[in-house]
Amino acid sequence: MFSIKKILYFIVLALIIVLGIYFRIKYFVFNRAFWGDEIAILVNLQNPSWLSVFHPLSMGQSTPPLYLLISKIQYTLFKEGNLELVFRSIPLLSSILSIFAFYYMCKKFLQNKLSRIICMIIFCLNFHFIYFAQEFKQYSSDILIFILIMLSYFHIDLNNKKSSIIYSSLYALIIWFSYTSLFAIGAVITTMLIQKVEIKRLIKFTLPIFISFILFYINQKYLVNS
Length: 226
Known about the structure:
The chain is mainly alpha-helical. The chain has 10 helices and no strands. The radius of gyration is 20 Å and the shape is flat.
């Protein structure tokens, strides 16, 4: 049986989540015109070469290559449509999914229900998170990816070869989707070291990630002096 406190907790939680989603969708459908940075990315997408996503971007822009590749696919498929809504659909979806991912993380780390409620209020109703949910930039997907990487730590089993290969490959790939994923991956690997996992298994796990990072650094080296 649910107690009154539990029922009240779920009602308040549902209200916060609904409000978070509502505000994100509300500003999305407002469909404001592109501004400077968004237009600059759009100009870069007009390059006919698909390999251009791996080249230095013009107009002072920096966007993860695979995020830009997805945007280029969108541009190719829907360039005759409403580009503002098309390109902002991924940030919107990422921002909405991050709400549920963040709640799952709250449950993982916080036992106190009031603490979860406070954290969810801060996350769901954060003005910057709401704003970037309708901004043609990678920031909303950065948040979602960061949370998912942190949560993935609890599902990695270095003693299980299949699990190790899957997560190692995902980490190696996801670097190309999100700059901030590097910090989350670094936190996961550091935690593994602290937990004193078997070094040989850890090296095998991190090797594909390290190779991907080196290639990523070479590809994005132009940003170092930016």
